[in-house]
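Continuing the batch. This is chain 6 of the set; chains 1 through 5 are on the previous pages. Same settings as before, nothing changed between runs. Recording input and output for traceability.
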Amino acid sequence: MEDIKYISSFILIGILSLLAAHCRQLGLSLAGKIPSPVWNKRPLNWIPFGLSMENDRLSTKFAVILHADIVGSTALVQQDEQLAHERTQDAFRRFSDSIEKYQGHVRELRGDALLADFERPSDAVTATLAFQADQASYIEQLNDDIRPTVRVGIAMGEVVIADNTLTGAGVVLAQRVEQLSRSGGVCITAAIHESIPKRLPFEQADMGDRQVKGFDEPVRVYDVELGAGALIPSPQGVHPSEVSPKPLRLAVAVTFAALVIGGGLLT
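Output for chain 6:
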């Protein structure tokens, strides 16, 4: 009888382990939560011209860094401080939505600047082009001169994550590259250029080697646009909220059956 209990316990543990692995592949957990390592998303608590996020532990990683700012923000504020404030916030809210949609993570939002990181260069570029297209359409509908236009720089490098933000040479490089971008555009480094799949409908114009502040060697940069008549690529992967409920119901049923069988054998 003791042998039967031992074997049944081992089988039950095996079933639950397989179930947990299956749920992780679906981006789910048995508690119904989304594991942050899979989707790399965190809640955003917006405050005026700032972003408050949960604390991160000190860590280092190699990342794709996106830095963006508002072109001519001082002039906009001088014209109408309140309206410029509201439209800048609105622009960065929509940009953050696009960043999260493409598996990015907003790390910092201060005044007229935004900092985010991605795992894949193609996601960073696509998220930016999607937002820039939306922002251009939005600006065309305005009847005044308070038009917050965003320019973006994207680079790769090792970063340190601490105090809810990123630091490191990669962040500085992204800032410098952003300053080379045209208004409403996006500028990328050669490393990003070489990492983007050729199948994506992007036109990348070589801007040549540029000497940027803080770096001894010239940096090769590219201007990126969506190809003529092309559509913005959709995000890759399935969002947890879009997963079919059938696998989850099956997982719950298997769990219940395993517990019932295990409980019966162990009594």
